[in-house]
Specification:
mainly alpha, elongated, 12 helices, Ribosomal_uS7_dom, 6 strands, ribonucleoprotein, Ribosomal Protein S7, 364 residues
Length: 364
């Protein structure tokens, strides 16, 4: 194998740049400041040039202050250029201040006219009749505000006192398209608008731990998504009360969640009232609940049943517990039936709890 470096080849000639000659500083006379309108040539000097060699004096050319280069002036628009050309040739220039109607563009383009909507095709065919034809050099309509201003007061809205004259809504008032609503009929709490559904918001607040509302909202979104992807409940579960068909419940997960909670929600609660029977014994008294209280009890039961599941994520545990309640299973139904049985057996204590003293005889 031949060596990579050959010692017998001729050495390449290298060009060395000599160091610049140091010229002693001389006192230079003051040079007058050139005029701002003088264009001085640029001197390109390399380091290899002789420092003692002086450049030749170049002639300066005065420049007018209004001078513009070839790229300094902006070209006119195509429509303005065409209007100037038509005006110089004696033709009818186009109206630059208005847009071009789509019908006129489609009349010139046959290929686009075939693919145009049926409404535009009908308007084009109606415009070809002699009765609807427009004179040459004019258009069927104008989009410029100048045309409305030139038309006089006929195109403007006339007002008499606070009523608009010549419009379809004369009773709306000055500057209004529709009449103002009667604020006196609105309730005082009309400005309190709910951002979320009341059931979704109540479940979200119950899911929240340690004040982390954003994490509870993420879990609520995942629960609703699981309800949407879950199959419809079986027809054998007659305990689920809803107005929608069972096959359409997964399509609306919010209504699905509302139906599950309202179905398992208890109607009453048991209150242990002391001091009536005497001897320190408490008497159970059934107390009816409002709608929000009933839903809260159902949510607490569902969350308690979800804690006993072995799934890792909270959203999966709650979703499976909700689906079990929709099928008629789960611990929430057992707690509801037990509570209603206790309320039925203690319904005789309702009158005693209201009067504050035990009564005599049998209560009907």
């Amino acid at each position: 194998m031949p060596p990579r470096i050959s010692l017998f080849t001729t050495a390449r000639s290298l060009a060395f740049r000599p160091s610049p000659t140091v010229v002693p500083q001389k006192r230079i006379a003051a040079v007058p400041t050139p005029s701002p309108y003088l264009l001085l040539p640029v001197q390109n000097r390399s380091a290899s040039d002789d420092a003692s060699k002086k450049p030749a004096a170049a002639a300066t050319t005065p420049v007018h202050p209004d001078f513009k280069g070839p790229n300094m002036d902006q070209l006119p628009h195509v429509s303005e250029e065409q209007a100037a050309l038509d005006k110089s040739m004696g033709g009818t220039p186009p109206d630059i201040e208005q847009g071009t109607p789509v019908q006129e563009i489609l009349q010139r383009d046959k290929d686009a006219q075939e693919k145009a909507p049926e409404v535009l095709k009908q308007s084009i065919n109606a415009g070809k009749s002699p009765a609807n034809s427009t004179p040459s050099g004019s258009r069927s309509f104008s989009t410029a505000t100048r045309r409305n201003a030139e038309g006089g007061s006929a195109g403007l809205v006339q007002f008499e006192d606070t009523r608009a004259v010549g419009l379809e809504y004369p009773d709306a008032g000055f500057g209004h398209k529709f009449p103002l609503p009667d604020i006196a009929k609105f309730p005082k709490t009309n400005n309190f608008r709910k951002r979320y559904d009341e059931v979704v918001d109540q479940v979200t607040r119950s899911l929240m731990r340690h004040g982390k509302l954003s994490q509870a909202q993420k879990n609520m979104d995942e629960i609703l998504d699981n309800l949407r992807k879950a199959p419809a409940p079986s027809s054998g579960a007659d305990t689920l009360k809803t107005n929608l068909p069972r096959d359409q419940l997964p399509l609306s997960p919010v209504q699905y969640l509302t139906a599950i909670i309202d179905s398992v929600a208890p109607l009453v609660k048991i209150r242990q009232q002391k001091g009536i029977l005497g001897g320190g014994a408490a008497m159970p008294v059934p107390v009816p609940l409002q709608r929000r209280q009933r839903r809260r009890a159902a949510i607490q039961w569902i969350l308690a049943g979800a804690e006993n599941r072995r799934d890792t994520k909270l959203a999966e545990r709650v979703s499976k517990e909700l689906l079990a309640v929709a099928e008629g299973r789960g611990t929430a139904w057992e707690r509801r039936s037990r509570l209603h049985k206790m309320a039925t057996s203690a319904r005789a204590n309702v009158r005693i709890g209201l009067s504050g003293r035990p009564g005599r005889g049998r209560l009907n």
